[in-house]
Amino acid sequence: MSKLPHIPTSIFSVMSQLANEHGAINLSQGFPNFPVDQRLLDITKQLTHENTHQYTPMAGLPSLLEKISQLTYEKYTRKTDVATEILVTAGATQGIYTTINTLIKHGDEVIILDPCYDSYEPSVLVAGGKPFRIALNEDYAPNFNRIEAGITSKTKMIIINNPHNPTGRIWKENEFEALETLLEKHPQIVLLSDEVYEYISFTQPHISINTRPKLRERAIIASSFGKSLHVTGWKIGYLIAPEKLMQEIKKVHQFLVFSVSSLSQHVIASYLDIVDFDAIAKMYLQKRDLFRSLLEGSRFTLLPCEGTYFQVVNYEKISSKNDTDFAKELITHHGVATIPISVFYEDGTDKRMLRFCFAKTDETLVAAAEKLRRV
Q1: How confident is the model at residue 277 (pLDDT cuts 50, 70, 90)?
Q2: 13-27 burial, b for 16+ CB within 10 Å, e for fewer?
Q3: Do 259 and 147 share a structural domain?
């Protein structure tokens, strides 16, 4: 019997496969197609010849845990206990899955804000919990009246994603204040904050839960070196949580993956000494601005992009087809792959929106935009 009988094959796999079949430019799945930093490759080459190939401690390589703690303090002035509050995971998705399956029991309710990344609901279902999907506002801001109305005595977790995939929106100060006020009324609720795009923000600084004392003692924060350092295939992420929560999460983690790729941990621990996250954000800002400028002559309407490496567009001036069919048409007839936004909603809300990934070479973006301007 299936635990996920109504969960289809991921749209990301579907669109990438269709793009491969038709030789389309793939702006669908969220992975860069440009080379990683040569310094990272040099460190990797060096460390492959050293004693870096055996199990690390379950919670993570000690030197990497120290670097994460240092980074968290430098960026957010939060002091973390290396031994009890940080866990290296096999990507942020594994960290999110492990967190949910640790803290959610059969019948517990979890509030998820739509549109949302597609791993949240299946993780809740496998844990035996009940997802409660609540739509964001038209501008993709959280609607706290709807959120509060959705809270019951069984609500045990709220999941937020900031900067937001798929829309690229960043939460504002007043929204965190409203969240703090709300959660003060409901001490049984923990917060899972997906912050994998934390170092890719443009128009305003990313506000991390790490900076919110009222929230962080009841919050689990998921981060991703794969996203931040554009090495998505390495599948290296980490969680930060107070000891009382992390202690339980580690119990499940040790029997799920035990420990994470040793070589990758050694390399990232060294690379964190030299990498400049501000430079990475500037690089993605250049790509965002390039892609947006290239689409100015098209019939697509561009939505704001405050963070992440995704650009959402509206195509209602072009077609009345539903977004999934139009996305497939873009691949088969125009040679560009994208992701329809409706798949991020529980009820398939279709506002004729598409998500393009601009974490690509400038040449790829130019070639894709040339095709899109002809649509």
Answers
A1: very high
A2: ebbbebbeeeebbbb
A3: yes
Query: In this structure, what is the dihedral angle of CA atoms 356, 361, 362, 365, given to the nearest 10 degrees?
Result: -30
Q: Are residues 369 and 227 in the same domain?
A: no
On whether residue 43 sits in a domain, the answer given is no
Spell 325-364 as b/e; 16+ CB within 10 A means b. Answer: ebbbebbeebbbbbbbbbbbbeeeebebbbbbbbbbeeeb
Number of domains in the chain: 2
Residues 15 and 100 placed together within one structural domain of the fold: no
> End of a domain among 239, 254, 271?
271
In this structure, are 204 and 244 located in the same domain? yes
User: Which amino acid does the sequence have at 194?
Assistant: D
Residues 131/112, Cβ–Cβ less than 8 Å: yes
Domain span including residue 205: 51-271
Beta bridge partners of 326: none
151-177 burial, b at 16+ Cβ within 10 Å, e below that, comes to beeebbbbbbbbbbbbbbbbbeeebbe
Picking from 231, 252, 271, the residue at the C-terminal end of a domain is 271
Contact 237, 253 (CB under 8 A): no
**Other C-beta atoms within 10 Å of 212: how many?**
19
CA angle 335, 315, 120 (to 5 degrees): 85
| Any domain includes 1 | no
All residues at 6 or more sequence positions from 65 whose CB lies less than 8 Å from its CB, including other chains: 59, 82, 86, 88
Number of residues that make up the chain:
375
pTM over 0.90: yes
146: in domain: yes
Return the percent helix, strand and coil in the chain, to nearest 5: 40, 15, 40
pLDDT in tens, 198-254: 999 998 899 999 999 999 999 999 999 999 999 999 999 999 999 999 999 999 999
What CATH number did the domain enclosing 346 receive? Answer: 3.90.1150.10
